[in-house]
Amino acid sequence: MAKGLGQEDWAILQNQPSVEQLRDSLITKLDFQNDIDLKLITLLLNNVVDLSDTLPADLKDQLIKIFGYNLIGINCLINKIKFYLSEENVLRFQDIKRYFDLLIKVIGHDDLLYRLLQNLSSPLQLKELKSVFFGSKLFTLLNQCFVQYQLETEYSERGNYIAKFTNQFLVLLDKNYSNYHELSEIFVSILKFDIDTSPKIFSHFITQEYFPYLLHIYQNSKNNNELITTHLIKYLNSISIEENEIIPYAIILRNFQINCNIVESTILLNNLTLLKILIISLLDENDSVTLFQCFQQIINGWGQQIFISKTALSLQQNYSRFLVISINYFNLEQNRKISEEPNFLNSITNRISSVSDRVRSLGMLIGDCVFEKIKGEKVFKIDQQTDFEQTFMNDLGLLFEKDDFLKYLETRVMDVFKDIKTGKPRRKVLHQEDIEQTVASLSERIPTSMKISVPDDNEDEDMEDSDDDPSLAKKSEVHIPLYLKDLVTYLTASKDGNSYEMNKLALTYGSNLILRSNIKDLRFYNEALINCLIGLNNNFNIENFDDLRLKCLVGCCCGDPEESTSIIIKLFLSGDYSLQQRLVLLTTLSLSARHSRGFTDNNLELKKPEFPSKLLPPHLHKQFMIYETSLMTDPIEKSLEEGLIDETMEKNREKLMGAGNILRISSKLRKKEQSFPSNPTKTRIVNFYKIVGSKFYFPLTNIWFTLVENGQQLGFNVGNYSAILSSHFIKTIGLILHTAFPSSVDIHDMIKEAFNIVIPLTAKIFKSANKSPNDTTGKNDDLLILDSMTFVVLIILDNSNEQFLINFYLNELAVLKNWLADLLSNYSDLIEGGDAKLFGKCYACLFRLNELFEKFQRLLIGEDMI
To answer: Which residue intervals make up region (Disordered) (predicted)?
Structure first.
């Protein structure tokens, strides 16, 4: 029998109590510590909660406190809702909603975790608490209520759910809860709940206020130290860290145990600043033993033949960055020891003997770094290699001296927080005041723009009336943007009387203005321009808004490709943008590569403007314009695909399909004369073939290879739109690859990267759920990915030398050939029913591969015999 409630109180609660009786029993007499048990909770669920809609506020609040006092109340609420959900009775909706609302109010209290932990009576209850809140019990129930009855709550979204319980966890610390074993268990459970959103909890702990708690929690989580450190690394990867914050963050990170697994996972994140922080955190006054051990382990794998042949070149470059930075901090004795180890020499030898230029260059780079530290001079004195190493080191940026860091070690860890700005998003947000300050810095040395008047559509009709009406304000004159500072100002115009004209003029004249600007000014304003353009909304329904904006973006990228591409890729990765805006960023890269290569696209007529003094007299100029190459009439991808699907596919259909089978090909899929894009003119950028790989292509493939899920590279995971983004991303890679033929210095490595993207996806198409040919679940997603894959494969087959492909990519071609044959044998109806054009592309790929293997059959047999 409960101590605070007598027999009479129990009888009252069981027999339809009045409000006064409930107030007397539950508020006046109730003893929380002794009365709240399963018997009371069950009684309240059956006799009182049904009346909660009519209860006064004080009794409602008391019910919330009772059910949130310990796990008994919460578990009973969850089980009650589950019982009603299992009945699937629409008439039960009001009952479910009543209990659901009570549950939401119970878990919504900021001190819920504090009360529950205070009332734990055994370690088993702590385990049960973790199961309820950070397992699947509560969160799954909330989502089930939404799916079945549309009972929506903010906690149905993982990010909000984690944020709520993170705040409750902070309340525990604010109330000086001192059981660090229990705190550590809860903290680790929050981290394990969701791999993507949970690391955000560190935004509260990398502060002067809560960092000491984090250290105590870490010290009491011996079995989960690596997990905590890994999530901390992920958090640091998600925020923006300036160069002057590298050492302070390294001081913070050195309080956590780092091993080779964590080092390797950090390398895969492709975050150079974070990699510097990690390496510096491992330095000490002596030999930096941990860093040296990690270096030895990584370089052994880095030089293995299987690593060289199977690992994407973008990832190999990330590993090389770690090696180069580490070598910079090793002392003379350590570098000499490295140079004498057989594994190091074998690694360099394996790379130098590779057929890939980039693989060889990375091998010579590491060799030069080690021997330059020992002897003061490089081993490989080759002009091309010198240029490669110079570019590589420039991309690394500033490397801090070891002594600077060691001096900083004397600083207490709590003092470093004054030198960092915690919690910043990784994307640098461009505010209006930042732009105005940038513009003002050059305003004194740039003359004022020419003024023009931009009339309103109905200005002629209303001019006389408006002159007579003093209540109507006249629009002020606006300027044609003649300088980049004007362009930035116009693009960020606030919603005033002239913002429409300013936006329209900026978009109309922007591309020409950007292309005629000198590289120094463009580089100064480029990041601001790209930020403004990609974030610009068509608030005024400007005609051809998307085309005009895209032309300006491509102008920025073509005007300064070496800097602009990195800005665009950074925004794609970390900018707070919609799916559509990210697709625009990808399109900007592909169109910029095509324009720089010399292709002319009808949807992007972008020419560098000539000043009148550089033109012929008008009558002569018109005569020469007759010989201008005509523009395409079809979209780029469609035109390329029509050219890649050969007429011979129909002629050889019997050979392709086998006797007795009929290949149906729409006439629309046949190659049409004059449907090809016009042959490119000479490259518009002198060194395009040198930079197309390093600036346009490899940064994108590097992004793809970091998208690893359960050990597989399956593309982006953005919910229902994953296939759209992944497909567009792969096609962008294909379009850029097309511009690299035939003379890019990296073409061999670029083809290899393309195969490394396409081949793993063959295991995903129509296989993600062990589909049978009749199962159409997720069909559209698979068709989108398949379309982009065949596009890339056709690009490679159509532009590469056949013997070159056989010599270097025999295994990849064989995998694709067998996969396509199996795909078309089992899923031809599914593919043709979804997209007849894609059906033709698949057969075109298979035919090209069959033709290629038959043509070089003797060569292949000879290789097998060897």
So the answer is: 450-472
